[in-house]
Design a protein that fits this description.
It is a single chain. The chain has 325 residues and is an alpha/beta fold. It has 3 domains: 3-83, Winged helix-like DNA-binding domain superfamily/Winged helix DNA-binding domain (Arc Repressor Mutant, subunit A), CATH 1.10.10; 87-161 and 265-318, Periplasmic binding protein-like II (D-Maltodextrin-Binding Protein, domain 2, 3-Layer(aba) Sandwich); 163-263, D-Maltodextrin-Binding Protein, domain 2, CATH 3.40.190.290. The chain is 44% helix and 22% strand. It contains 11 helices and 12 strands. The protein has helices at 3-15, 18-25, 29-43, 59-84, 99-116, 129-137, 181-186, 197-208, 222-230, 240-248, 278-296; strands spanning 48-51, 54-57, 91-97, 120-126, 143-147, 155-169, 188-192, 214-219, 236-239, 253-255, 262-271, 303-305. Strands 3, 4, 5, 6, 9, 10, 11 and 12 form an 8-stranded mixed β-sheet that branches. Helix 5 (99-116) links the parallel strand 3 and strand 4. Helix 1 (3-15) packs across helix 2 (18-25), helix 2 crosses helix 3 and helix 5 (99-116) crosses helix 10. It starts with a helix and ends in a 20-residue tail after the last strand.
Length: 325
C-alpha cells in the first residue's frame, strides 16, 4: 500500500464509479481496477462493492477512506511545509461557501489569491452550511464559511461576523419602512429548504411569537426564491448578500424586520488536520482580509464584524435595507 494507491482509492470512493475515477486520474480503467484488487488482497478485506449502478465503499472501505484522507493530508502538508521554506506556498485547497456568501466573497478571494499566491490551486464548493460542515469534518474540504456552527473536536471554528436577515418582497408591494413579524407571517412565504440556517431562524421567529405562517414553496436555490418573489408569488427571508444584486437591478426589495433584528453568526470552520497546511493558512488569512474589505467598503451590508478590533458596535442593518446603487 502506497500513497498512489491511497489517492486512487479515495478518488474511487468519492466518485462512486471506477470509470469516472480512472478518467479523473488519467489512467486506464483496467489498471485502476487492478490497483483496487491489489489493495484488497494486501489488506485481506473487501473495500468496494461493485454493481451496475457504480461502486461504493464497504464498512472496511469507509474506515480506510477516513484514514486515507488524513494520511494524504499529512503527506501534502509535509510537501507544502518543505516547499514553503524555499518558495511560495503551493498546493490544492478546497473551500466551501453557502450560496449567499459566495456571491460576495468568492470572486474577490479568487482574484486576490491569483495575485499573491499563484501556486495555490483553489477548489470552490457551494452547498448548504450543514453540508459544508460535514465535508470539513470528513476532510473533503479544508475550510468553509458556515452559519451558526457548533463546537466539534474535528473543527476549528472562528466567528467572523453577525449577519442580519431581511424580508424580501416584490418592488410593487407596498410595505412600511420596517415589517412587523405578524405582517411577515401573513404573507405567502417561499423559504429555503431545511436545514438551512435562514429557514431555522425564520421558523424560530414565528414560533417564539406563536404565529402560524403560510409556506407556499421551499427550495435550496437562492435564484429560484428571488425569481418567485420578483414575480409576486410571495415573500422570502434572506441576508443582503443573497439579494443585493437583484435589488440593485430593481427586481426585489429588502425590508428590515421590526421588533428585533433576525441574526445569524457567520464563522470560518477549518478542518483540524488541514489547518496546519501553509497553503490553507494563506487562503484563510486572505479570506478574512477579503471579508473585512467587503464590509468596511460597504459592499457587504447588514453585517457587523466580530473579529476586527474597530468593528462598529451598532447593528448597521437596523437601518433601511441597502438601496440600489
Amino acid at each position: 500500500m502506497d500513497i498512489r494507491q491511497l489517492r486512487y482509492f479515495v478518488k474511487v470512493v468519492e466518485l462512486k464509479n471506477i470509470t469516472a475515477a480512472a478518467e479523473a486520474l488519467f489512467i486506464a480503467q483496467p489498471s485502476l481496477s487492478q490497483h483496487m484488487t491489489n489493495l484488497e488482497s494486501e489488506l485481506g478485506v473487501s473495500l468496494l462493492e461493485r454493481n451496475v449502478h457504480g461502486t461504493r465503499a464497504t464498512t472496511m472501505g469507509e474506515l480506510l477512506y477516513r484514514h486515507a484522507k488524513i494520511i494524504l493530508r499529512q503527506f501534502e502538508d509535509a510537501q507544502s511545509a518543505i516547499r514553503s521554506e524555499s518558495e511560495a506556498p503551493s498546493g490544492r485547497v478546497a473551500i466551501g461557501f453557502p450560496t449567499s456568501t459566495s456571491r460576495i466573497v468568492a470572486a474577490p478571494l479568487l482574484g486576490r489569491l491569483r495575485e499573491r499566491y499563484p501556486l495555490i490551486e483553489l477548489e470552490l464548493v457551494e452547498a448548504s452550511s450543514g453540508d459544508l460542515i460535514a465535508q470539513v469534518m470528513s476532510d473533503r474540504l479544508a475550510l468553509a464559511v458556515t452559519m451558526n456552527a457548533r463546537a466539534d473536536s474535528r473543527l476549528r471554528i472562528e466567528p467572523i461576523l453577525e449577519e442580519e436577515l431581511f424580508a424580501v418582497v416584490a418592488p410593487s408591494l407596498r410595505t412600511p419602512r420596517m415589517l412587523s413579524v405578524p405582517a411577515l407571517a401573513a404573507l405567502p412565504l417561499l423559504l429555503p429548504t431545511h436545514p438551512n440556517s435562514v429557514r431555522v431562524a425564520s421558523e424560530r421567529l414565528f414560533n417564539d411569537r406563536h404565529l402560524s405562517y403560510r409556506l407556499v414553496a421551499e427550495t435550496s436555490a437562492v435564484e429560484i426564491l428571488i425569481l418567485a418573489v420578483e414575480r409576486g408569488l410571495g415573500a422570502t427571508v434572506l441576508p443582503t448578500a443573497a439579494f443585493a444584486l437583484a435589488q440593485a437591478h430593481g427586481r426585489v426589495k429588502g425590508v428590515p424586520i421590526a421588533d428585533r433584528p433576525l441574526l445569524r453568526e457567520v464563522s470560518l470552520s477549518l478542518s483540524v488536520s488541514a489547518a496546519r497546511s501553509p497553503a490553507v493558512q494563506c487562503v484563510r488569512e486572505t479570506l478574512l482580509r477579503v471579508v473585512e474589505d467587503e464590509v468596511v467598503h460597504r459592499r457587504w451590508r447588514g453585517v457587523r464584524l466580530l473579529s476586527a478590533p474597530d468593528a462598529p458596535q451598532r447593528k448597521p442593518a437596523r437601518q433601511a435595507a441597502p438601496r440600489p446603487r
